[in-house]
Design brief:
The chain is α/β, with parallel strands linked by helices. The protein is built from four helices and six strands. The chain has one domain.
């Protein structure tokens, strides 16, 4: 798997907002509500991913999930593609204002995902600025995970994407366990 890592130094006008206005479903409080997320309803692997990543074994909360076909540019022999994007924050609000925690998470995820063989999958990990209006503290951060799979057909790309998403899920749960251990050491 190819992995691209970036830290977004976006201006305040380009920062994400958590929770987003309109249509946000808190999957940590309502685990079965992932079916209310249109991209998850249309793509079972994304539904399972959201259910698990927002579950009790995970330290994360998701928002802004999308998924769909990626058409090759006309006139090119590029293979078919399928991709998704999910934004994550820490479920514990005290962790969302520590940029170094997000950068470390992205680096750790990158290391785990690079072990996955093949070039048909690309995962982009981006640490981005994020506002938390319900908190009195100024801006924090979030992590955007974009996964793109290529295949000879759209069905082939979709299968690769589902398998890749399961690998990202495993890596996130591993990171979650490691962060929990470090937090316990500090206590």
């Amino acid at each position: 798997m190819r992995v691209e890592l970036q830290v977004d130094n976006a201006s305040p006008s380009n920062r994400k907002v958590f929770p987003p206005a309109g249509g946000y479903v808190d999957l940590r409080k309502q685990p079965q509500a992932f079916q209310q997320v249109p991209a998850a309803e249309a793509n079972a692997p994304l539904g399972r991913f959201l259910e698990i990543i927002n579950g009790t074994e995970s330290l994360f909360a998701s928002f802004g999930a999308t998924a769909g076909e990626i058409s090759p540019q006309p006139g090119t022999a590029a293979p078919a593609g399928f991709g998704s994007s999910v934004m994550l924050v820490f479920a514990d609000p005290t962790l969302n204002h520590q940029r170094d925690r997000y950068e470390h998470l992205a680096i750790q995820l990158s290391g785990l995902l690079l072990r996955e063989p093949g070039e048909a999958l690309t995962c982009e990990l981006a640490v981005a600025g994020c506002e938390f209006p319900s908190e009195s503290r100024p801006g924090g951060y979030c992590l955007r995970i974009a996964l793109l799979a290529r295949g000879e057909t759209i069905d082939h790309a979709r299968v690769r994407w589902g398998l890749g998403l399961a690998r990202v899920q495993q890596a996130l749960l591993y990171c979650s366990r490691q962060i929990r251990l470090k937090l316990r050491e500090v206590e």
